[in-house]
């Protein structure tokens, strides 16, 4: 119990320290999530040993990851990104997937990696949930460039989650598990239809009257939805990220075209003020630094994987958007699209738990994800700032 209490205090202190440190370099702003992961590594067992991930912190971390994707799903406005942005986003992901598999199987044939399918999938992901607070703070959301970026990021988060579920179903020898995706989709769609069409007057009144009181019915309903869909996804042997992402989309559809700024602010407070930092700090605390440094080849894999992120996710941005975005906006789109971390963590955890991926390979992939989230958004924002306002 003492270890749990001490670790919680350390995690809370790191969560406070991270935004302060991230703001120390105003000319080159470090994303807060990178500061959280880096500080997690420092206070974790690999460096100072001040804290460790116990069962309680691990449970909070899982819901921090879920809340990250829940808020990312809420940000997706299908009315804005529908049509051309969505078409390009999905087409770009399939091109990324083809590139990722081709390169990964080449590396596998050369003996450089052990899990070509999972690596090929990991390099096609986009950390939309991680990018959202960065993009929001920079004023990118709501602009035409932001619409195309959100659509590309949504494809880079949703499609890999579905692909992971299908791959696991096939590799497990139980193809029937793939059908559970359809079951989950039907249930999620039904929840969305009911939420949009069914608005009992009493519930609507309570939502409005309790928004500023201790009742907070709107927030409690949102939390019930996210917990329910996350548990449903877990019960169907699907990734909890899928449940959280769909829950966010459902809530986003319900509150669209309403004055929900106070409600969104409360959810941001719960997510970015409490649960989400725990996920990133715990990720740093569980980071196996010794496994990475034990072999020089593994260290070389880190920049190599980061370059793969940029190639596989950046190439579609440079090739497919030539008629839709100006030349100086396509490199920032490529850089933002190539930032990947949460799904990389999830994919590597699946790989190591099933024995399909070597532990050192997984650590190198996560390290590359951390590097991409640190470097690529900074470079992308600098390119956008040089370009000027929309």
Task: Explain how this protein is built.
The chain has 390 residues and is an all-alpha fold. The chain has one domain (2-387): Na+/H+ antiporter like fold (Up-down Bundle). It has 18 helices and no strands. Helix 15 crosses helix 16 and helix 16 (330-337) packs antiparallel against helix 18 (359-387). The longest helix is centred in the last third of the chain and has 29 residues, at 359-387.
Summary, kept brief:
The protein has 390 residues and is mostly helical. It has helices at residues 2-22, 32-43, 55-75, 78-81, 84-109, 116-122, 128-138, 144-171, 176-197, 201-209, 217-235, 240-255, 261-285, 289-293, 296-320, 330-337, 342-354, 359-387.
What is the helix tally?
18
- Helix percentage: over 70%
Q: How many domains, as an integer?
A: 1
Write the H/E string, N to C.
HHHHHHHHHHHHHHHHHH
The major sheet is characterized as:
none
Features:
Na+/H+ antiporter like fold, 77% helix, 18 helices, 390 residues
């Amino acid at each position: 119990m003492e270890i749990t209490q001490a670790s919680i205090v350390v995690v809370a202190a790191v969560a406070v320290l991270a935004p302060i440190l991230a703001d120390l370099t105003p000319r080159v702003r470090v994303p807060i999530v990178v500061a959280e992961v880096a500080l997690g590594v420092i206070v974790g067992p690999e460096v100072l040993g001040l804290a460790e991930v116990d069962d309680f912190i691990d449970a909070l971390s899982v819901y921090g990851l879920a809340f990250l994707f829940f808020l990312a799903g809420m940000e997706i406005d299908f009315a804005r990104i529908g049509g051309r942005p969505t078409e390009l986003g999905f087409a770009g992901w399939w091109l990324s997937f083809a590139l990722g598999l081709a390169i990964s199987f080449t590396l596998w044939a050369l003996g450089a990696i052990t899990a070509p399918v999972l690596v090929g999938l990991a390099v096609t992901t986009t950390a939309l949930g991680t990018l959202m607070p960065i993009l929001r703070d920079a004023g990118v959301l709501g602009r035409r460039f932001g619409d195309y970026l959100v659509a590309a990021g949504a494809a880079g988060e949703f499609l890999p989650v579905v692909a992971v579920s299908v791959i696991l179903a096939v590799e497990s020898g139980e193809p029937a598990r793939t059908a559970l995706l359809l079951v989950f989709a039907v249930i999620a769609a039904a929840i969305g239809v009911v939420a949009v069409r069914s608005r009992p007057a009493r519930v609507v009144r309570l939502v409005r009257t309790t928004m500023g009181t201790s009742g907070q019915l709107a927030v409690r309903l949102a939390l019930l939805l996210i917990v329910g869909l996350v548990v449903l996804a877990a019960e169907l042997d699907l990734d909890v990220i899928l449940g959280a992402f769909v829950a966010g989309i459902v809530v986003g559809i319900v509150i669209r075209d309403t004055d929900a700024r106070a409600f969104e602010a409360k959810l941001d407070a719960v997510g970015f003020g409490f649960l989400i930092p725990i996920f990133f700090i715990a990720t740093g605390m569980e980071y196996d630094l010794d496994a990475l440094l034990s072999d020089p080849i593994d260290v070389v894999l880190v920049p190599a994987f980061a370059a793969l992120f940029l190639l596989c996710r950046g190439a579609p941005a440079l090739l497919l958007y030539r008629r839709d975005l100006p030349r100086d906006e396509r490199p920032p789109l490529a850089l933002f699209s190539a930032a990947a971390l949460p799904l990389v963590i999830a994919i590597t955890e699946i790989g190591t738990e099933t024995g399909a991926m070597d532990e050192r390979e997984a650590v190198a992939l996560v390290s590359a994800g951390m590097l991409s989230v640190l470097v690529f958004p900074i470079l992308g924002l600098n390119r956008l700032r040089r370009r000027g306002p929309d």
